[in-house]
Every structure is written in C-alpha cells, then in structure tokens.
Amino acid sequence: MTTSQPIDVQPETAALLAAGEPSPTGLRRFPEGFLFGAATAAYQIEGAVAEGGRTPSIWDTFSITPGRVVGGHSGAVATDHYHRYRDDVATMARLGLNSYRFSISWSRVQPDGAGPANPAGLDFYRRLVDELLDNGILPWVTLYHWDLPQPLEDAGGWPARDTAARFAEYAALVHRVLGDRVSNWTTLNEPWCSSLLGYANGHHAPGRQEPEAAIAAVHHLLLGHGLASQAIRAQEPDAQVGCTVNLYAVSPATDSPADVEAARRIDGLANRLFLDPLLLGRYPQDVVADLAGVSDFGHVREGDLATVATPLSMLGINYYSRYVVKAPEPVDGTVDWRGGGAVAPWPGSEGVEFVKRDGVPVTAMDWEIDAPGLAETLVRVHREYPELPLYVTENGAAFDDVVDPDGAVNDEPRVAYFDAHLRACLDAIDEGVPLRGYFAWSLLDNYEWAWGYTRRFGIVHVDYETQVRTPKASAHWYSDVIARHAVTDPQGAEATR
C-alpha cells in the first residue's frame, strides 16, 4: 500500500548539485560525516497493540484510564507504522535521511518484561532494520522510550530496583538479535520524563504522585542504563552505546539572589541530576540537599554510581526550549521552595515559577522558541563534562498544521524553527563542540502522549482517519538541507569546514 507522496529535492537544489557550484547566496556547511535523521517512538506510531504477541505497557493502561489523556485517545492504532513501515521507510529514503532513530517496544519483544523473547516481536524489528539498511539508512535503536511492560509496573515499576536488572536482560536480548545490523544503541530516552512526570506529578504513565518513589526511579533508570550498557558490551565490546537526556537552558527571570537560586534548583533537577551521575559518577550534592525532605538517597548502593557511569560512546541531547524561572514570593521573609506541598515534577522546588517572556514566540505546546538555548546547552555540556561525541537526538516543534485545498501543508513556522536550530548547531560546532548529528522530531505526526492526537510534531502530515501521509513544506526543506549538507547563509558568505 502506498500512502506517501514522493519527496524530491527542489529543482534549484538539484541543478546546483549537478553543476557542482556553490549557492549564489552562500552555504553554511556541516562537517563531513554529520548525520541528518528523524526520530520516532514505538507507542506513538506503531499501533497494533494486541498483535504479534504484544502485551500492554504502562501507556496502554494509562491511556484508557478516564481523564488521563486529552480526548481519551490511545496509541492502539496510532499511525499504523507496524503495518506501514515499508512505506514509511520509502518516505525516509525519498527525504534522503542518513539515519532513523526509533524505539523498541519492550512489551512487544518481551511480553512479561522478563523471561523468553517473543519471536514475532523481534521479527518485526528485524524486518524494519533490514528495510532501513536496504534503503541506505542507518538504524539507530532506542531501547526504552517510556513504555514499561505493565507486569513490571505491577511489581513496583522503576522505583523498584529489580526493574533495572530486568532492563539489562531485555537489552542483551535485543542486542543479541539485532547487534549484527545495528551499530548505534541508546539505552534510555529522557529519564527525567520517565521518573518525574511518571512518578512525581503523574502527568505521564504510570500516573503516580509519589515524589520519594520518583527519586528512586531516577536512580534505577540510570542504574538500568549502566547495567544495559555493560550487558551489550559483554556481547560486543566495541558497541556504540549512549543515553539520551532532555536538557534545558535555564535562566533566572532577574539577577536577584532569589531568582538565581531558583535557576540553580531547576538546572539541578532538570539537567545535573542526570548529567552528573552519567558523566561524573556522582549526584550533585546541592541537588541531594534540595531533595533532603523528599529522599535520603538510601536506594543508592555501593558500586551503583560506578555502574551508572559506565563509559558512554556518545550522549544524545533532546532540546526543545529554555526555562526562565523566578523564586516564589516570600512569606514572612521566608521563601517556601516546596510551594506548600503542591504536586509538581520538581520535588523539593515545587514553588518555583516558570515565566513566559513577552514577545517570545511559542509553539502549540506553549513552549518558547529559543534556538540560542540549544547552542548554549551543547557548549555547556562540552565545557563542563568529559568530552565525548554529542548528538541532538530530538529537536522539533508542534504547530497547528492545516492541509491546504491543494493538498499541501505549508508549515513555514516549523521550517523557521528547524532553520534556527540547525544554525544553533553550527554555532556550537564553531565553539568546538563535537556534535556529530541531528535528528528532527518527528518524522510523522503521531500520538503525543497525554495530549493524544491534538498536537502535531511531524514533518510528514498524517490523516488519522485514512492514514494518508503528506510530506509538509518542512519535509521538502529538510530534504534540501540534507542534499546540500548545509543551510543557506543569509550573510552570503561561503563557510566551509
């Protein structure tokens, strides 16, 4: 079944490449070997939740719980990628993608979260990888993108230490089957979301509001990453294994000491709580102090942090926006960082206020668009932590896309977003950051978690009733960037590397 429209390099670009001449306006080029890809997640696109031996994950359970997801939407059908993956790979090939980052559904591969593999589930991913390789696209596997098998949640979920051990067994199982064809492995996607949104404020699956359990989940996710890395390398010593974290540039609303303190707290909880153990083998002591009223970190055992800090081959960074924060208003001269015990994803700093700046454009998610924050984040990681290859593994924006009467989707705001953020990548490279690739989020419009189908991130539009795919203007633009290996330089100067 063919549901994708052809994607061609724009005529002026094709002529430019054929002639071998630089663009009249000049190009700002990316380094040789820089990867351009797109990313997705299993529960958001696959559908077929009860086919091929797959059993429920925490997102299946969460999505059918009344009041949890906008419109009561679920990923039961999603974008039907399970049945349409060949067409979707053909779309990627027409785009010219160098790489495709996708996640494995744990409950499709290992229905009980433990024990033997499900051959039908593994076969789906084997066929997907083969299809990618046949089309010259590098497969980039994420082992965990939030969809914990429900039996493991029933046994305690990520706050339970045993889940980390089960994750390592699952990682070894998948690598044993796909390791001969997949060279790049990401263990976790955004453990901040899995832990704090899932177990602190309950906005994500499994929907628990238990801050102490959330801090234990932080550690056991990171421990699971380390154990999984070791399990993969036990089978393939030179395997390229990384982890993906969602990072933010964080700024105080003013230069007042209280607002600076608010920024320190949120930076600690959003960024350093994950970067420090992964890259330095320790938790930041100021963040541990901030969390003293929530957790005593008694779940951390001797040797755990050495396992967490198992050397990475690369670090994935997901970036969407900047946080601008201010301190709570003092009461009787005292600042209450706990915010009166409000349920929030920021245990220990619930009272911090997130500020929206006047005149700063926002996406349909109400996230401020701040491309310089991406360069700032990349440079910060490069300068403050041990050097290793970095990849922007997610970057993108939701907008209220409309299909025009002629069938086109002219998403110019998304084109502008990608253009600004790719320039920010080049700015970071100019500062010496070893940035090796960029993955647009997302390839397809899809199930956007608690927002259901009400937010569109894709560069390819999906009609959820018919499953017809329509490449948007941003897809054509990105295809041109990949073909040129460059963005147009508005200054008219040819910059080469």
UniProtKB/TrEMBL annotation:
Record field: catalytic activity: Hydrolysis of terminal, non-reducing beta-D-glucosyl residues with release of beta-D-glucose
Leader sequence segment: none
Claim: Cell inner membrane is one of the keywords in the record: no
Cited PROSITE patterns: GLYCOSYL_HYDROL_F1_1 (PS00572), GLYCOSYL_HYDROL_F1_2 (PS00653)
InterPro entries from the UniProt entry: GH, GH_1_N_CS, Glyco_hydro_1, Glyco_hydro_1_AS, Glyco_hydro_1_beta-glucosidase
Record keywords: Carbohydrate metabolism, Cellulose degradation, Glycosidase, Hydrolase, Polysaccharide degradation
Keyword Hydrolase: yes
Pfam family name, one: Glyco_hydro_1
Active-site positions on this chain: E394
EC number from the UniProt entry: 3.2.1.21
Family: Belongs to the glycosyl hydrolase 1 family.
Record protein name field: Beta-glucosidase
Source species: Luedemannella helvata
